[in-house]
C-alpha cells in the first residue's frame, strides 16, 4: 500500500504515527499492520510501555523455537549477528528463509521493532556483567577520547551494551556535587526541563507551542506528560554540576511537591497508612502484572499525584521489602 494509506491505517493503532519517519512507516506497514488487524479481531489492543512477565516469556519461547527450527546455536548469534562475521551470511539466510520477523513477534501485540529491541536486551550477555572495575572505567575514558560518543563502537571494544557505556561515561565525567541543591542549580534544572518539554510538545503538535516561542510564558502541560521519560543526560549537561540520576530524582521531588502543594504524603504515620492502603487496593484488583493495574485510579490512596508516581512508590516498596521479589509473581 502507498505511504499515505499506510500512515492512515496505522493511526488507528499508533496515534503518534504522524511523527514517525516515512521509512519507519513503510517498515511498520510491512511488519505490523496485518498483525495489528489480527489482534483487533481478537479484541486485543496494541500495547506500549513496560513489557510484562507474560510477554517476556513469550519472547523467550519465540526465540527458543526459532533456534530449534533453524539450528542456530545461540540467541546471541541470532540477535547480534554482526559479532559473528564467519557465520553472518548463513544466519541472515536462515532468518530470511524462516521468516524471522513474523516468528519473533508471534503472540505479542506490540510493534515489531519494540519486540526486537526487548529481545536484544534480554539476550545480550553484555548486559549482565555487574559493576565496572577501575580498569574498565579508565578504558572507557580512553575509548571515549579516541572515538567520541560512538557508543556502538565503544560497546564492542568494552563488551558492554551501548546504553551501559553511555550512562557510565556520563556518570564518571560529571563533577558530581553531593551537597544540597542551590537555588541556581534548581533554576537551571527547571529551565532545562522546560526547554525539553517545549521541544517535545512542538514535535507532537507544532501549532500548540508556536505562540509561546517568542514569550517567557510558562508552559501549561498535562501532568502525566511530566512523568514521561526525559533525556536526562541532555538535562545533566545543561545543569552542569549534577549527575543525570540526581537531576531525575530532584525533578521528581519538585514535581510531587508542586502537585501535592507541599503536603508530606509519604512520611511518618501517614506514609505507613498510605503504603498499607496501596497494598490492599492492589490486592483487591487481582492483577497478574503491573501493566494490568490502572495506576491513575489508585492515586487517591496517596494523594493528588500522577499514576506514574504511585507506580514508582510501589516499585520501591517491593524492591526494599520483598525478599527474592524477582522470582515471585506480581500477585
Automatic annotation (TrEMBL):
InterPro entries: Homeodomain-like_sf, Myb_dom, SANT/Myb, TTF1-like
PROSITE patterns: HTH_MYB, MYB_LIKE
Coiled coil: none
One GO CC annotation: nucleolus
Residue intervals of the HTH myb-type domain: 124-161
SUPFAM superfamilies in the cross-refs: Homeodomain-like
Record GO biological process: termination of RNA polymerase I transcription
Myb-like domain boundaries: 124-172, 173-255
Pfam families: Myb_DNA-bind_6
Gene Ontology MF, one: chromatin binding
Stored PANTHER family: TRANSCRIPTION TERMINATION FACTOR 1
Name of the molecule in the record: TTF1 factor
Source organism: Cettia cetti
Amino acid at each position: 500500500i502507498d505511504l499515505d494509506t499506510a500512515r492512515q491505517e496505522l493511526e488507528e493503532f499508533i496515534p503518534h504515527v504522524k511523527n514517525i519517519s516515512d521509512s519507519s512507516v513503510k517498515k511498520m506497514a510491512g511488519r505490523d499492520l496485518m498483525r495489528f488487524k489480527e489482534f483487533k479481531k481478537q479484541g486485543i489492543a496494541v500495547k506500549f510501555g513496560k513489557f510484562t512477565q507474560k510477554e517476556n516469556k513469550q519472547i523467550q519461547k519465540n526465540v527458543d523455537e526459532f533456534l530449534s527450527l533453524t539450528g542456530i546455536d545461540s540467541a546471541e548469534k541470532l540477535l547480534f549477528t554482526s559479532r559473528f562475521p564467519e557465520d553472518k551470511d548463513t544466519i541472515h539466510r536462515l532468518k530470511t528463509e524462516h521468516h524471522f520477523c513474523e516468528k519473533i513477534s508471534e503472540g505479542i501485540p506490540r510493534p515489531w521493532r519494540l519486540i526486537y529491541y526487548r529481545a536484544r536486551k534480554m539476550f545480550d550477555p553484555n548486559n549482565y556483567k555487574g559493576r565496572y572495575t577501575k580498569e574498565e572505567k579508565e578504558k572507557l575514558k580512553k575509548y571515549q577520547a579516541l572515538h567520541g560518543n560512538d557508543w556502538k563502537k565503544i560497546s564492542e571494544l568494552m563488551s558492554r551494551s551501548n546504553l551501559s557505556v553511555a550512562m557510565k561515561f556520563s556518570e564518571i565525567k560529571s563533577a558530581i556535587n553531593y551537597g544540597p541543591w542551590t537555588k541556581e542549580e534548581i533554576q537551571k534544572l527547571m529551565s532545562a526541563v522546560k526547554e525539553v518539554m517545549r521541544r517535545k510538545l512542538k514535535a507532537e503538535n507544532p501549532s500548540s507551542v508556536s505562540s509561546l516561542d517568542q514569550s517567557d510564558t510558562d508552559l501549561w502541560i498535562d501532568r502525566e506528560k511530566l512523568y514521561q521519560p526525559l533525556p536526562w543526560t541532555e538535562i545533566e549537561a545543561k545543569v552542569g554540576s549534577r549527575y543525570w540520576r540526581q537531576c531525575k530524582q530532584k525533578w521528581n521531588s519538585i514535581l510531587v511537591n508542586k502537585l501535592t502543594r507541599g503536603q508530606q504524603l509519604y512520611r511518618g504515620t501517614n506514609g505507613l497508612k498510605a503504603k498499607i492502603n496501596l497494598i490492599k487496593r492492589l490486592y483487591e484488583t487481582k492483577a497478574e502484572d503491573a501493566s494490568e493495574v490502572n495506576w491513575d485510579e489508585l492515586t487517591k490512596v496517596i494523594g493528588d499525584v500522577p499514576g506514574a508516581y504511585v507506580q514508582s512508590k510501589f516499585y520501591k516498596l517491593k524492591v526494599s521489602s520483598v525478599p527474592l521479589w524477582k522470582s515471585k509473581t506480581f500477585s
